[in-house]
UniProtKB/TrEMBL annotation:
UniProt cofactor(s): FAD
Keywords associated with the record: FAD, Flavoprotein
Location of the FAD-binding PCMH-type domain: 107-286
Positions annotated as active site in the UniProt record: 461 (proton donor/acceptor)
Lineage per the UniProt record: Bacteria, Deltaproteobacteria, Bradymonadales, Microvenatoraceae, Microvenator
Protein name per its UniProtKB record: FAD-binding oxidoreductase
Residue numbers marked as site, Important for enzyme activity: 321
Cited InterPro entries: Alkyl-DHAP_Synthase (IPR025650), FAD-bd_oxidored_4_C (IPR004113), FAD-bd_PCMH (IPR016166), FAD-bd_PCMH-like_sf (IPR036318), FAD-bd_PCMH_sub2 (IPR016169), FAD-linked_Oxase-like_C (IPR016164), Oxid_FAD_bind_N (IPR006094), Vanillyl_alc_oxidase_C-sub2 (IPR016171)
């Protein structure tokens, strides 16, 4: 999920009012105090109309949490939190339908209660109690799922199991460059604990601030960096999973050829097999040298050819983000119809002029124009400047919630496809999305950025913005029509249903088609072994 309107390069509209206490919004993205003010939203509306030609409506505010009504709960236990506040805050992730239902004050699927175990023993007691009392358990990490991964199944009495008390960096091995990290640790807490040791996990999904290590592994999250180890499972050496059948620990080796890799069974299992309680993560030294450049391309096909040549060159840039001309316009980084390639290299060990110069040479061979690169030694001046992208990148999602309050859809979908299959897929996405946005909303705006590159293919990331025909529950039906069209287009044109947004409930049927019946049956059998009474995450993934 990404910034629907604004990202690096654009002066952020969001003002940070630190006089208010820090508290997460019960319905929108992130902190309450970082939601753009009414004046900022008016400025955003002007920008939207001026740049995209989409007219926003009047600002409406969400139903306040105190006014939300929930179905009753009979559950009682000292270790269960049955307050409305806890139940509301554990009802949804942050997909567009989640935001909309939260905005309207509809928290019908709320869990009956919330448990927050702080040890394996407490977790096992929750499992025993749930198995004995016929209650299902829905695992909740940071609650940033965009695929319905934390929502309770209305068919069953269900509690939410929050991992936030299973937190912290537990052990660091500087010699082998690894750390044991508890699953409920949030991104900033992990980096804060590693920084004094000169180390980093270097995994920065856009949801970094509000998502957890366990959630990342359970969903195979993708980080900000464009090449090599793009997904979190590439950093896992071993993990502990506590399942209803008992605890499982995968092999504690830097590499092993013994049988199927159980890390890869649990990574992406989305809480259906057991709860990932901790993982031994591979770390890196904090990068000292950085090189950054931006290249303009008049023609999209030239930009794609340059990107492929860079992906297949072995240069492995940390960043190789290509914005199409509409994305560049929306982000206010280019107004002349150019496509923009943002290139970056990072190293803890050596200056990067040779790699950057070669990448720019490749770009120029494909008609790219660049005024030169910036080289930064983070031990010297300019270190702060090199980190500026991070706050703009992480604050982007506030705009999606702000646009919703003005009756404007903004959402994203992403995929991965081979280089040879890209043109067909991309053309189909443009044609089908244009058609469905016109049919459902009268008009719309679609942009593309390429977020990750591999020698054999690329990960395109699409953002669509459109006026909502109505501002009530029926907008969710409109969203579903658009989402279905996007999923069908990806599936029938060689793209995977997701490069890093996971499966959850929203992508489940499409993923079952992608995986095929034999694989799904095998995973079902594995689930029955780890979770014999099927108490965990019903309706998610399987
Ligand atoms: C604005 C925004 C930006 C995003 N950017 C990115 C991005 O850049 N890259 C990316 O990959 N994703 C992104 N996402 C999606 C989401 O942040 C990821 O899927 C993330 O990995 C979820 O982590 P979480 O801790 O919030 O997990 P949750 O949302 O709480 O849970 C996700 C799933 O994992 C299960 N789960 C959680 N913890 C555990 C555990 N310890 N053991 C077993 N199962 C568990 C849950 O039951 C659920 O099914 C974004 C989402 C939003 C809203």
């Amino acid at each position: 999920m990404s910034n629907p309107l604004i990202s690096s390069g654009y002066k952020p509209i969001v003002l940070v009012n630190m006089t208010q206490p820090k508290r997460r919004s019960h319905w929108a993205w992130g902190w309450e105090h970082k939601m753009p003010s009414i004046e900022e939203r008016h400025r955003l509306a002007e920008l939207l109309e001026g740049v995209l030609g989409i007219k926003a409506g009047e600002v409406e505010e969400a139903v306040p949490i105190q006014a939300v009504e929930l179905p009753g709960t009979e559950l009682k236990a000292t270790w269960l939190d049955t307050t409305n506040d806890a139940r509301i805050r554990h009802t949804y992730g942050r997909s567009w339908p989640d935001l909309m239902r939260g905005f309207l004050g509809d928290f019908g699927p709320a869990p009956l209660a919330v448990a927050t175990p702080s040890s394996t023993e407490e977790l096992e007691k929750v499992y025993d109690w749930a198995q004995d009392s016929g209650v299902k358990v829905q695992i909740y990490g940071g609650g940033t799922s965009v695929v319905g991964g934390v929502e309770c199944d209305p068919e069953y009495p269900t509690i939410s199991l929050d991992t936030s008390n299973l937190s912290g960096v537990l052990e660091i091995d500087k010699t082998s460059r690894g750390a044991l990290i508890a699953a409920g640790a949030f991104g900033p807490d992990i980096e804060d604990a590693l920084r004094p040791h000169g180390l980093t996990l270097r995994h920065f999904p856009q949801s970094f601030e509000f998502s957890t290590l366990g959630g990342w592994i359970a969903t195979r999250s993708g980080g900000h960096f464009a090449t090599q180890r793009t997904h979190i499972e590439d950093f896992v050496q071993w993990m502990e999973v506590v399942a209803p059948c008992g605890a499982v620990r995968t092999g504690e080796y830097p590499a092993s050829g013994a049988g199927p890799d159980m890390n890869r069974v649990f990574a992406g299992s989305e809480g259906t097999m057991g709860l990932i309680t901790k993982a031994w993560m591979r770390l890196q030294e904090r990068p000292r040298y950085k090189a950054q450049a931006s290249v303009k391309f008049a023609a999209w096909n030239d930009a794609i050819a340059a990107l492929r040549a860079i992906a297949q060159s072995g240069l492995n840039p940390a960043n190789a983000r290509l914005l199409d001309s509409r994305e560049a316009l929306m982000n206010q980084v280019s107004f002349d119809g150019s496509n923009i390639l943002v290139l970056g290299f990072e190293s803890a060990d050596r200056p990067l002029a040779a790699q950057m110069e070669r990448a720019l040479e490749i770009a120029r061979d494909h008609h790219g124009q660049c005024d030169g690169a910036v080289y930064i030694d983070t031990n010297g001046p300019g270190a702060k400047e090199s980190e500026r992208w991070k706050s703009a990148f992480l604050d982007g999602p506030y705009m999606q919630s702000a646009l919703l309050t003005m009756g404007v859809f903004a959402d994203t979908f992403e995929t991965a496809v081979t280089w040879s299959g890209f043109e067909r897929l991309h053309n189909a996405v443009i044609a089908n999305m244009k058609d469905v946005l016109k049919r459902t909303c009268g008009r719309g705006f679609l942009t593309c950025r390429i977020t990750h590159i591999y020698p054999d293919g690329l990960a395109p990331y699409y953002t669509w913005v459109a006026p909502m025909p109505t501002r009530d529950r029926s907008a969710i039906e409109v969203w579903k029509t658009i989402k279905d069209e996007a999923m069908k287009t990806l599936r029938t044109n060689g793209g995977t249903i997701t490069h890093h947004h996971a499966v959850g409930r929203i992508h489940r049927d499409a993923w079952h088609q992608e995986a095929g019946p034999h694989s799904i049956a095998a995973l079902d059998a594995m689930k029955s072994s780890f979770d014999p009474k099927h108490i965990l995450n019903p309706g998610v993934l399987l």
